[in-house]
Write a structure and sequence with these properties.
GTP Cyclohydrolase I, domain 2; five-stranded mixed beta sheet; binds zinc ion; 206 residues; disordered N terminus
């Protein structure tokens, strides 16, 4: 199996030798104490370092400029002028209000104008924005705007369905509840037929 390079846009782990600053580790010890446990007991000794590194990974999107994934385009598309759709892309993010996981799937479509990108690039754009502290509405808008501004297609449609651990594991504790957000641009916003077509392709028509 090939090693994933950062270019692949997969989870970028903190560099193996990267040290966790003392104040970061101390903050996590404080949180453990606040939660009611003893950060000096054996099982928790190494936890602050692990948590700190995990958070660098969850938030690796801050070190990424998602638009860079759209720089390389292909112009020879044999006259293809239909919808390009990447469906059911699993992703993970964290809500900025509770720093709790957001776990979901995204459907990303665009109607090309002259050129296309490698299909996996759409997922990389998603992950670049998802690996930050987010709210689902903004994540949806950022992905759509990025594709709209950098690929300049005739239309962009982004639909995200996700469940929020801050709702399912705490607060009102309603497991199984998912939230859906969407952003339609260009022909998918202005033309009813195009919007219905893309939603049907996403399996959301009806
Ligand atoms: Zn939340």
């Amino acid at each position: 199996m090939a090693e994933a390079s950062p270019e692949d846009g997969d989870l970028i782990a903190a560099p193996a030798g990267a040290e966790v600053p003392d104040d970061v580790a101390e903050a996590i010890r404080t949180l453990i104490r606040w939660a009611g446990d003893d950060p000096t007991r054996e099982g928790l000794i190494d936890t602050p370092r692990r948590v700190a590194k995990a958070w660098k990974e969850y938030c690796s999107g801050y070190a990424d400029d998602p638009s860079r994934h759209l720089e390389r385009v292909f112009e020879e598309v044999g006259g293809y002028d239909e919808i390009v759709l990447l469906k059911d892309i699993p992703f993970q993010s964290h809500c900025e209000h509770h720093m709790a996981p957001i776990i979901g799937r995204a459907h990303i479509a665009y109607l090309p104008c002259d050129h296309v990108v490698g299909i996996s690039k759409l997922a990389r754009v998603l992950h670049g924005f998802a690996r930050r502290l987010q709210v689902q509405e903004r994540l949806t808008a950022e992905v759509a705007d990025c594709i709209w501004n950098h690929l300049k297609p005739l239309g962009v449609a982004v639909v995200i369905e996700a469940s929020h651990a801050c709702m399912t594991a705490r607060g009102v504790r309603t497991p199984g509840v998912a939230m859906t957000t969407s952003r339609m641009m260009g022909v998918f916003r202005d033309d009813d037929r195009s919007r219905k077509e893309v939603l049907a392709l996403m399996g959301l028509g009806g």
